[in-house]
Design brief:
Number of strands: 6
Largest sheet: 4 strands, parallel
Strand order of the largest sheet: 1-6-3-2
Strand content: 15-25%
Order of helices and strands: HHEHEHHEHEEE
């Protein structure tokens, strides 16, 4: 007998991809979520969460995205997962463009950067918060990618930052 039948479960809570509906609010995970939400809601612009492999960083991020989507005025929020250390500025900007649905994912680096900044500015003028989570951020090593990311973080409209970024990864 498998565990699903034994415990009377309709589906597996232990899949490879973290499913927020199976979130258990442990004291540590709840505290991490609260700190990240406080940081995002006070417009700190950049939040970093580190931890060893397997502690639930990605699961917490997926839970946050799920919670954001249920708000009355949900932010434009997405997650970028870095799978390799060869991430360059063009790849990162393409990932931002895809998450922000700019429709320019196949463009060159300059067009991508302009379209992402335009979308960030438009969201800000419309009072729509933009949150991007970068998971496995320790893989972001390329100097040009870091400069492109900093350029997005530095963008302001009427004295307000246009992007809230949450970086997660291993120390």
């Amino acid at each position: 007998m498998d565990y699903k039948n034994f415990f009377g479960l309709a589906e597996s809570p232990f899949d490879i991809t973290a499913d927020p509906k199976f979130f258990f609010p442990s004291m540590q995970h709840t505290a991490a979520i609260k700190k990240i939400l406080d940081s995002v809601e006070t417009s700190s612009n950049l939040t970093v969460m580190t931890g060893s492999v397997g502690l639930g960083k990605t699961f917490i991020m997926r839970k946050l995205l799920d919670d954001f989507s249920k708000r009355d005025n949900p932010p434009q929020a997405g997650i970028i997962v870095l799978l390799h250390r060869e991430v360059n500025a063009h790849w990162l900007l393409r990932a931002f463009a895809a998450q922000m649905e700019t429709g320019t994912e196949d463009a060159d680096k300059d067009v991508l950067e302009a379209s992402v900044k335009s979308k960030l500015s438009a969201n800000s003028r419309e009072k729509k918060q933009t949150i991007v989570i970068i998971d496995e951020a320790q893989m972001l090593e390329d100097p040009e990618a870091l400069i492109a990311f900093k350029g997005l973080l530095d963008l302001e409209v009427e004295g307000e930052k246009t992007l809230e970024a949450v970086l997660t990864g291993t120390p």
